[in-house]
Amino acid sequence: MSKICEICGKKPNFGNTISHAHNLIKRRWNPNLQSIRANMNGVTKKVKICTSCLKAGKVTKATR
């Protein structure tokens, strides 16, 4: 499964963790994705969106 928000397209960022001795270790920062049931164009479907899109109200949650 890809770690991409279906609304804004946010992806993981890559970089290094730097220790006090300046040793570099590759790492990645993943977006905080949540799998929710949402109304998309009048159809209820399951989507993976980041919490910033959810908080901004870019999608409406479906009622069960």
Which helices and strands, and how do they pair?
Blueprint: E1 13-18, E2 24-29, E3 33-40, E4 43-50, H1 51-56, E5 60-61
Antiparallel strand pairs: 1-2, 3-4, 3-5
Question: How is this structure best described in words?
Answer:
The chain has one helix at 51-56, and strands spanning 13-18, 24-29, 33-40, 43-50, 60-61. It has 64 residues and is mainly β. The protein has one domain (13-61). The strands form two sheets. The chain has a three-stranded antiparallel beta sheet with strand order 4-3-5. β3 (33-40) and β4 (43-50) form a beta hairpin. It starts with 12 loop residues before the first strand and ends with a strand.
Give a concise summary:
The protein is mostly beta strands and about 60 residues long. It is about 10% helix and about 45% strand. The chain starts with 12 loop residues before the first strand and ends with a strand.
Count of folded domains: 1
Question: What's the mean pLDDT score?
Answer: 94
Overall shape:
elongated
Major sheet: order of its strands?
4-3-5
Biggest sheet architecture: 3 strands, antiparallel
The low-confidence runs, each spanning 5 or more residues with pLDDT under 50, are none
What is the H/E order?
EEEEHE
**What assembly state would you assign to the polypeptide chains in this entry?**
single chain
> What percentage of residues falls in helices of 4 or more residues?
under 10%
Instruction: Please state roughly what percent of the residues sit in beta strands, choosing from under 5%, 5-15%, 15-25%, 25-35%, 35-45% or over 45%.
Output: over 45%
The number of distinct β-strands equals 5
Radius of gyration: 16 Å
Number of helices: 1
Distance between the termini: 25 Å
